[in-house]
Write a structure and sequence with these properties.
By secondary structure, this protein is an all-alpha fold. It has a domain of 49 residues. 57% of the residues lie in helices and 0% in strands. It has 4 helices and no strands. The longest helix is centred in the middle third of the chain and has 15 residues. The relative contact order is 0.05.
């Protein structure tokens, strides 16, 4: 098999953490990256999971506020064209 080298820049802490996770799974980081590249070529899709990410308090407050606005009817209608949206904005000033 002919191999090629890919050089990427990443945060040193991320690299170390990724190497640790790969080792815990019984793989090298290189093996996982190669598997990811093969899957990318095969499926032509990119998948990122944010399951371990938690929304910030600011985001949660913003979502709650927007939900209140939506329920109270303080939202714009849908528009067929940009011109319709602009006309609505001008009318509501």
């Amino acid at each position: 098999m002919r191999t090629a080298v890919i050089n990427i820049k990443t945060d040193a802490k991320i690299k170390a953490r990724a190497q640790k996770v790969a080792a815990q799974l019984g793989f090298s980081l290189s093996a996982l990256i190669n598997a990811y590249l093969r899957q990318l070529v095969k499926s032509k899709t990119v998948y990122f999971s944010l399951s371990s990410e938690k929304p910030t308090e600011y985001l949660l407050r913003s979502l709650a506020e927007s939900e209140k606005d939506r329920k109270a009817g303080r939202v714009s209608p849908t528009f067929e064209t940009a011109e319709d949206a602009i006309a609505w904005l001008k009318k509501t000033k």
